[in-house]
Amino acid sequence: MSAVSPLAITLESIATCFEGVLPSSVCTCSAEGTPNVTFLSIVHRIDSQHVALSNQFFNKTHENIVQNPFVQVVVISTSNLRQYRLDLRYERTETEGAVFDQMKTRLDAVASQTGMSQVFHLHGVNIFLVLDCRPMNAETGGEGLLKADYLSPIEEFTARLAACGGLESVINTSLDALSALFGYDHSFLMVPDEEAKRLFTLGSRGFAQSGVGSETWIGEGILGIAAERHEVVRTTSFGRDVTYSNAIRSGVRSRGEDSLLEREIALPGLSKVQSQLVVPLVAHDRLFGVLCLQSAAVGRFLSDDERVVRIVSRQMAASMALLERIESAEPGSIGQSERATQPTGASTIRHYKADDSIFIDDAYLIKGIAGRILWKLLQSYTLNGRVDFTNKEIRLDTSLQLPDFKDNLEARLILLRRRLKDRCDFVNLTQAGRGHFHLEVGRQLALEEMP
Amino acid sequence: MANRQPTSISDELKTLIEGPVSVVVGTRDSRLVPEITRAWGPRVSEDRQSVSLCVPLATSRKTLDNLEANGQIAVVFCLPTNYRTCQVKGRHAKAAEPDSTDLAIVERHRDAFAEVTAPLGQPREIIEAFWRAEIETSAQLVKIFFVPEQVFDQTPGPGAGRKL
């Protein structure tokens, strides 16, 4: 290939044009000389000389570039609202590799979220050499954007993270720091369940409802697909697409599991999400969780934000992996078990064996493993007055039937603590040093076992 | 380019073309290198046999050269509220200076476009700033007329590209 001369306007200098915030247009021409013009949701910047366009429907654009490789696209900067013309020459179509995988994940995730999985398929990614890049008007230059200083807040983030001694503090510290240091004010964190089939929410910031305990299927929707493929999914203009919870709920309905819905906690989320950044927390090639950032503004998370969040997510995942190892070496006995203090008032707590759901005075609290653990603790409390427990005894308690292939106990206990905090003011679980926790009960409890 | 005869614009298509749509014009030069420009104020003639639209002179010089040289034109109209999109391909007829009625139509079109895009997450001031950026750099408009020959449904999806 002949050497390519540098572009008058570099692609780097108009980076916001390639974020998919404002639609681009593309014009091709058949061998016969008939032009074809269409809109594109995004032009991807691959490197300083190449861009990529997705091919979803084997359309006229694709047909034309095979006949005649010359293409023009017009992109719009979100920072100065100027338009730029790019003259391109078609080079090749990729159907595998990193660029293809990332575009496919993003397409599949949005399709799954909007119930369009049967419709959207990425057939290939067309790669183009950029021959020229110039403003629509000759006098306009690049965007002239100043690079934000990300180094200092990243350093501060890792410093705060390094001071964390447990999973709960990793989650709290990270979500607080994402807001305070980077201005990512709406965030939540989900972790995989014991069977790696679902994700459940352990912490959130900036939403009307905390959503702690809410679940979603791995492999479905934006969160589920990012988790399954260990890929980042970033949307910059979600527009009128169906809201988060509706899509998830309809996914549940399509499984014929309607009965689950009444015991579902709604996912945290802004009602009008425009921008979303979903980053899997991966260490040692294992999924430790998914971090989701949201914004009601179009184009809130750009490629630099994605890089920053990739860095902090790797740090978070590494911390979570390390803590898991320390956890398993925790102390097993407690010096002295305190007796419960005398409570006032009375409440009924029901446990439904079918799904281990717990209802406190008819209000749903939690189900599954966390429900089973709470039921065990409350039985121990009402029978023996015990209020101090260790992680190890829970882990070794065969009656709880905890899966031994994945130790998720700490995450389950955090979930339980958060749900109790959200929903119940007279039963409280507090951490009492590493591997120990304390049960506080402020009322007379009547336990009822249900089928 | 067999079977390309003038075709008339249906009522439904006229409504779309003259609605609050995003309009982009595609042409090509003698080497088949494509050229894009944005257009405003599209209007369908009373006899439904031609369409006119205005393009900014400063950003459309090559487009105008291409039209004069070979007449080949493709114009896409997209309604941002539901992505209903059609592409009309045809032959350039003439270029003229827009009169005050044409300019008023352009103003109304820009206004209506901003109106419908605002609820989609693009604040009105952004859309306004976008066309102001265009007006600032190219205040002068040229009105072009073309004769439609082929109409395609280009609403995104597997059916995109279907000839109407």
Your description of this structure?
The complex is a heterodimer of chains A (451) and B (164). A seven-stranded antiparallel beta sheet of chain A has the order 2-1-5-6-7-4-3. A six-stranded antiparallel beta sheet of chain A has the order 10-9-8-13-12-11. Chain A folds into three domains: 124 residues, Pnp Oxidase, Chain A; 177 residues, Beta-Lactamase (2-Layer Sandwich), CATH 3.30.450.40; 105 residues, Arc Repressor Mutant, subunit A, CATH 1.10.10.10. Chain A has ten helices and 20 strands. Chain A has 451 residues and is an alpha+beta fold. Chain B is an alpha+beta fold and 164 residues long. Chain B has one domain: Pnp Oxidase, Chain A. Helix content of chain B is 30%, strand content 37%. Chain B has four helices and seven strands. In chain B, a hairpin with an 8-residue loop joins β6 and β7. Chain B is globular. Chains A and B meet through β1, β2, β5 and β6 of A and β1, β2, β4, β5 and α4 of B.
Structural class of chain A: alpha+beta
The second-level CATH architecture of the largest domain in chain A is 2-Layer Sandwich
Unreliable segments of chain A (pLDDT under 50, ≥5 consecutive)? 240-255, 257-262
Portion of residues in helices of chain A?
25-40%
* CATH fourth-tier homologous superfamily of chain B: Electron Transport, Fmn-binding Protein, Chain A
Overall pLDDT level of chain B? 88
Q: SSE string of chain B, helix = H, strand = E? A: HEEEHEEHHEE
Q: How many structural domains are formed by the residues of chain B?
A: 1
Helix content of chain B: 25-40%
Separation of termini of chain A? 73 Å
Tally of separate domains of chain A? 3
Question: Which CATH C-level class of chain B is it?
Answer: Mainly Beta
Low-confidence stretches of chain B: none
The profile of the biggest β sheet of chain B is:
6 strands, antiparallel, barrel
The amount of beta strand of chain B, in percent, is 35-45%
The topology string of helices and strands of chain A comes to EEEEHEEHEHHEEEHEHEEHEEEHEHHEEE
Q: Tell me the CATH topology of chain B.
A: Pnp Oxidase, Chain A
